[in-house]
Design the sequence.
């Protein structure tokens, strides 16, 4: 392989400019008769924050998001995966022409200078000098592959990019990079970008006027729509669709019988609804709350999630992990007062 950079990218804190320490002039990918590329490591700064788009040490993917199902002005919350080990993709590779790669290196060089990031600035000055000697492979068959970061992933100690090569040249005889963006990757990114509408269950009796030994009926004031998110990048698209499937009600105390109930949503044609007035299970509180104290009733919706490699929602998608949205609600429970006539 001819040309590249071993760019160890640790993401331990929020950064805008990586403090780069040049470790020597070890050739990571041979440049043939051209100059070697320095082997460097990146140690993030803990004092700055990531802005939109990109910074002097990273390229953030220009993903186009299309979101459907969240009413304008309505509340929403991020989807919570039922798989505790799930996380969205942090990074992938994007193909660049030699001219595009030259412009990207120039951008990083200029932004490092504007940020007064001396070490980074000097580093990209050296990279520019080395790349100018091989003219960025202009006129050669092949392409540059540059590591891109998922812009929707919050930078945290858990957000580790598994790839340690910041960019590489792929000639006709070279293997493909390990992770060019795929519909599957964009589906996972769209899953992580999914927000679900906030809905508080309507209780009968009211939440502030629950009664001991009286069943609590639940419903929603309006139907809940399905939600979808499309992620598109460089001609590749994936659409994730989340449909409300079931509702779990937890009384928030052991002083109830039953302490929890589960209901299945019904498709009303205008959305999905639940009404437990005719259900065989309804939470019933057995002990009043004291003074101003309350029980915290929890309503959790389970969403069935699927995806298709399309720019619009389509039926018959491939299943993804179920998602959750949770809505706590304080309830005050009183004894039923007898009326003497």
Sequence:
């Amino acid at each position: 392989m001819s040309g590249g950079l071993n760019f160890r990218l640790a993401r331990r804190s929020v950064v805008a400019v990586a403090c780069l320490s040049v470790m020597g002039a070890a050739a990571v990918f041979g440049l043939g008769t051209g100059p070697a590329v320095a082997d460097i490591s990146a140690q993030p700064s803990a004092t700055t924050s990531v802005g939109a788009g990109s910074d002097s040490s990273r390229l953030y993917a220009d993903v186009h998001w299309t979101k459907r199902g969240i009413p304008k002005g309505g509340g929403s919350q991020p989807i919570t995966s039922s798989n505790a080990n799930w996380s969205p993709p942090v990074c992938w590779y994007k193909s660049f022409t030699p001219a595009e790669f030259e412009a990207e290196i120039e951008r990083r060089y200029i932004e490092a200078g504007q940020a007064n990031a001396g070490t980074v600035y000097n580093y990209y000055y050296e990279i520019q000098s080395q790349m100018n000697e091989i003219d960025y492979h202009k006129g050669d068959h092949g392409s540059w592959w540059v590591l891109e970061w998922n812009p929707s992933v919050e930078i945290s100690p858990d957000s580790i990019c598994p790839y340690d090569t910041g960019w590489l040249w792929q000639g006709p005889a070279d293997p493909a990079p390990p992770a060019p963006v795929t519909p599957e990757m964009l589906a996972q990114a769209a899953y992580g970008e999914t927000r679900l509408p906030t809905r508080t269950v309507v209780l009968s009796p009211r939440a502030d006027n629950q009664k001991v030994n009286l069943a609590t009926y639940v419903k929603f004031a309006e139907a809940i729509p399905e939600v979808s998110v499309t992620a598109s990048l460089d001609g590749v698209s994936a659409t994730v669709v989340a449909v409300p499937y079931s509702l779990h009600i937890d009384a928030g105390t052991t002083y109830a019988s039953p302490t929890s109930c589960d209901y299945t949503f019904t498709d009303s044609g205008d959305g999905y609804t639940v009404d437990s007035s005719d259900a065989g299970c309804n939470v019933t509180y057995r002990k009043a709350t004291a003074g101003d104290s309350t029980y915290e009733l929890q309503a959790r919706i389970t969403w069935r999630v699927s995806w298709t490699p399309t720019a619009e929602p389509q039926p018959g998608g491939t299943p993804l992990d179920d998602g959750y949205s949770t809505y706590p609600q304080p309830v005050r429970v009183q004894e039923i007062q007898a009326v003497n006539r």
Remarks:
- The first strand starts at residue 4 and ends at 9.
- The helical segments are 98-114, 118-134, 183-193.
